Amino acid sequence: MALLESIVDAVVLAAVNSVVDSLDDKDSVSLAQAASAGIARLEAVRFRALAQLNRHREGARSVAQEVALELSLVDNHAGALVAAADALTTRLPRTLNLMDEGKLAGFSAMKVATATAWLSDEDAQAVDALLEERIAGKNPDQVRKAANHAANTVDPEGAGKRADQHREGRRLTVRHGEMGVASIEVEDGPVEKVAAAYQRIDREARALRTGGETRTLEQLRADVALDLLLGGQGGASERSEVFLYMDLFTYLGLNEDPAELAGHGTIPAALAREIAMGGNSVLRRIITDPLSGQVLDLGRDRCRPSAGLAEFVRVRDRECRRPGCHRPAQACDIDHAVPWQHGGHTTDTDLIDLCRRDHRLKDEPGWTYHLATDGTLTITTPTGQRYDSTPPPLHEPRPAADEPPPF
Fold this sequence. Notes:
The chain is of the alpha+beta class. The strands form five sheets. The protein has a three-stranded antiparallel beta sheet, with helices on one face. The chain has a three-stranded antiparallel beta sheet with strand order 10-11-12, with no helix packed on it. A two-stranded antiparallel sheet has the order 1-2. Helix 1 packs antiparallel against helix 2 (about 25-55), helix 3 (about 65-70) packs across helix 4 and helix 6 (about 105-115) packs parallel to helix 8. The chain has 15 helices and twelve strands. The radius of gyration is 26 Å and the shape is globular. The longest helix is centred in the N-terminal third of the chain and has 32 residues, at about 25-55. It is about 45% helix and about 10% strand.
């Protein structure tokens, strides 16, 4: 570890000591290239460290979540790093050596690992040898194409199997953007179905391009796709529950404090009011502690009743409680921080929201969870690292006298 820290310090000091402002164009490019080569070498070190961790854990499924926490990464990227680390240190030594030489970035190396994941060890090593002289200095897309071509060349009969594996991995993902937007994507769907779906969306979008239509074709496609997913009638036939957290003063237009949409993050006050005033919205009174902003109770003034304790926990937590996971509470399991069989209680002081994956993670050896009386969840990893998770307040702490009246 001391050696690694010395390497990082040397790289940082070299950059700081360079008088960047005095460099001409050529020297600036040279410095950027040198920095990229140094980053590639450090990424090779990181891959080796992650592979060693994976070996120590004997490939336990919780390794990816542990890496996500300790390197501040999202779960998918952490899992991809661990898988690539294992492949590079066993099946793809020549690709890893290119990183050691500063000739290949870590992201590009991961493309090779992905392209060869379906091959036997022997065939993966053959691809590794074929690529050694072909991918140095190439960009990630070039590396991906070269690796896929080499994999199909080494095992042409396996191409069909690979296609089947990809199709079996189809999934629906949501990516949250900024300022009240998000993207939904069907990944690795059957190409014939995806093509047919796009054709239908495009056809219906083009049919809406009448004389008075002001939306662009791209906007129409997006609107049509969402309308179809929500029942085919502009979403009017389908209602789904989402949690929108907004101060009453913001709702009334007395301030412009941002609101929060669970699973997405903050959204502008004006957009929050637009959503809250929609025809399908249900307003709900939530009582908070003025000094902390935390949820104390849920009002019952709602058009439809709901389960008390489970709903309280979901409203309080908003999202999965593992730091870095943003799955909305509605899609999570309600679990005991202290397992029921070990003395846990079915109360709001011992219940938390965890997505299904993190629910399973809690039962992995070496992971411990503790929920404090103030709602702070402390997770301890197998290496003894501690991470705290506290539900964010619904508003900034303020004197009780300034508390707005409830709905």
